[in-house]
Design goal:
InterPro entries: Homeodomain-like_sf (IPR009057), HTH_TetR (IPR001647), Tet_transcr_reg_TetR-rel_C_sf (IPR036271), TetR_C_31 (IPR041583). It holds the Pfam family TetR_N. Keywords: DNA-binding, Transcription, Transcription regulation. With about 180 residues, the protein is mainly alpha-helical. The protein has nine helices and no strands. The N and C termini lie far apart (about 70 Å).
């Protein structure tokens, strides 16, 4: 097996293995030893690349949040009209909820950490800010904030429902939040 200096993907494998393990066994079931085994790296690589388990977890969850923000960007970037932006938000909600189990677990594990530890709260705040920034390209800031919460809530509800509501309900919820206020 290559050494850390000749294996540039080692750090990436460790972070990917961390997310996979969290999705399988939760944060409480993750350890340096389990991550190293999953990533197929020597145990010493963990302390070479990271200062401790919180460092690994925070970087892994940062990678995950970057992935979700990239989904926001991919869905919203092509929209040029309010109707296209609304449909992009609808598509985003369905995309996020259809890959539900892994993403649902990762998100909820992150939120649990954020409820207890400031570094993870900071990560969540940055993630929400980045998501809202992308939404604000199409909607006013208060609407973007409401949409961000709607995306989160409908994604969670769709992911946990045995018979999740269809696109029409999602589209209607997005339309109601983004409708121009009555004069």
């Amino acid at each position: 097996m290559a050494t850390g200096h000749t294996d540039p993907q080692r750090r990436d494998r460790i972070l990917a293995a961390t997310l996979d393990l969290i999705a399988e066994v939760g944060v409480a079931g993750v350890s340096h030893r389990k991550i190293a085994a999953r990533a197929q790296v020597p145990l010493g690589s963990m302390t070479y690349h990271f200062t401790g388990i919180d460092d690994v977890l925070l970087e892994a969850f940062t990678r995950y949040s970057d992935h979700v923000v990239a989904l926001f960007e991919r869905h919203l970037s092509a929209a040029t009209t309010p109707d296209e932006a609304r449909e992009a938000v609808t598509d985003l909600i369905h995309t996020l909820s259809e890959n539900a189990r892994r993403d649902l677990i990762l998100t909820q594990e992150l939120y649990t950490l954020a409820a207890r530890h400031e570094p993870y709260r900071g990560l969540c705040r940055r993630w929400m800010r980045r998501s809202r920034d992308l939404l604000e390209h199409h909607f006013p800031p208060p609407t973007a904030r409401q949409l961000d919460a709607l995306i989160e809530g409908l994604t969670l509800h769709r992911a946990l429902d045995d018979a999740p509501p269809g696109r029409d309900l999602t589209r209607e919820a997005v339309r109601r939040i983004t409708a121009a206020p009555e004069p």
